[in-house]
Specification:
- With 316 residues, the protein is of the alpha/beta class.
- It has 2 domains: 192 residues, Rossmann fold, CATH 3.40.50.150; 82 residues, Putative methyltransferase TM0872, insert domain (DNA polymerase, domain 1, Orthogonal Bundle), CATH 1.10.150.
- Helices cover 41% and strands 14% of the residues.
- Strands 3-2-1-4-5-7-6 form a 7-stranded mixed beta sheet, with helices on both faces.
- Strand 1, helix 2 and strand 2 form a beta-alpha-beta unit.
- Helix 8 packs across helix 11.
- The protein is globular.
Length: 316
């Protein structure tokens, strides 16, 4: 298993700007790279969430390194508001979300996230719920095609779904290599070198873990928790995630397009925004990082900061 390498770590720290005495949340603990860096940067308190019990277990060394300053919570990051308020935390100085699958999950064949080595067709980030095998072997063909198109942006979704249904009629599809072979049999290779199974695996993973729903709940939970000057920093890895984050941040910073002049609602004064945008354009990883860590190439970092809701425009 490869070592976990946190993506855009320096950019995250510079944007979050943790300070002594601050209270922060790493809502996607994973391998603990962000959490450890935040705790090393400032004498602050950090809560960290992960739905994967294995990730929580790996945090033992970091807990020992920062006694009394790190608090690990097992659960979904979309439930951050409830998880923190149950522990008496009502306000934070910063929240970090590193979206997508962690390196530990991706590199463990037993978790079934990757087609690069064979393993059970699982893809669950937690320890319960529907698996990818359940979906592949149980859903109607049209529903499978819809999942591949919506969550994987796969243009050949119908062709793939038809091939899956034909294959499962002969034998259940239970392994990552088995599914990848079916997809590759009907999707031609791309000039870019992207494996033909990539988008299908992404789609199933997103659906199994309700990733987009979790992100929507987490973004709202984060802005509800941030106090004045508090910052939300989000690193996304594919267009579905990034579009959702961009749309949300555009809305809460008052940058959404004005209603049509023909719409009576457009005459009403717009409330002053409670947040300002820290990243007018998404930050990208540096060339030296993409050269040494291929997984960083698609990363996009966006951030907002809570301000006083007073009149006037927003600075960026």
């Amino acid at each position: 298993m490869s070592e976990h390498v946190p993506v855009m770590l320096q950019e995250m720290l510079q944007t979050l700007a943790p300070h002594d005495g601050g209270r922060y949340l790493d809502a996607t603990f994973g391998g603990g790279g962000y959490a450890g860096a935040i705790l090393d940067r400032a004498a602050c308190t950090l809560w960290a969430i992960d739905r994967d019990p294995e990730a929580i277990g790996r945090g033992a060394a970091l807990l020992a390194r920062h006694p009394g300053r790190l608090h690990l919570l097992q659960g979904r990051f979309g439930d951050m508001l409830m998880l923190l308020r149950e522990r008496g935390v009502a306000s934070l100085d910063g929240v970090v979300l590193d979206l997508g699958v962690s390196s530990f999950q991706l590199d463990d064949p037993a978790r079934g996230f990757s087609f690069r080595s064979d393993g059970p067709l699982d893809m669950r980030m937690g320890a319960d719920g529907t698996t990818a095998a359940d979906l592949v072997n149980g859903l109607p063909e049209q529903e499978l095609a819809d999942i591949l198109f919506r969550f994987g942006e796969e243009r050949l979704s119908r062709r793939i779904a038809h091939a899956i249904v034909a294959a499962r009629a002969l034998a259940p599809i239970l392994t990552t290599q088995g599914l990848a072979s079916i997809v590759r049999s009907v999707v031609p290779p791309e000039r870019s070198g992207l494996d033909p199974a990539t988008r299908s695996f992404q789609a199933l993973r997103v659906r199994v873990n309700d990733e987009l729903g979790e992100i929507e709940r987490a973004l709202q939970g984060a802005v509800d928790l941030l106090g004045e000057g508090g910052r939300l920093v989000v690193v996304a890895f594919h267009s579905l995630e990034d579009r959702l984050v961009k749309r949300f941040m555009t809305s809460v910073t008052g940058r959404a397009p004005s209603p049509s002049r023909h719409d009576p609602g457009g005459l009403a004064p717009r409330p002053a925004p409670a947040f300002r945008l820290l990243t007018p354009r998404a930050l990208r990883p540096r060339d030296d990082e993409t050269a040494t860590n291929r997984r960083s190439r698609s990363a996009r970092l966006r951030a907002i900061e809570r301000i006083e809701a007073v009149g006037g425009g927003l600075g960026a």
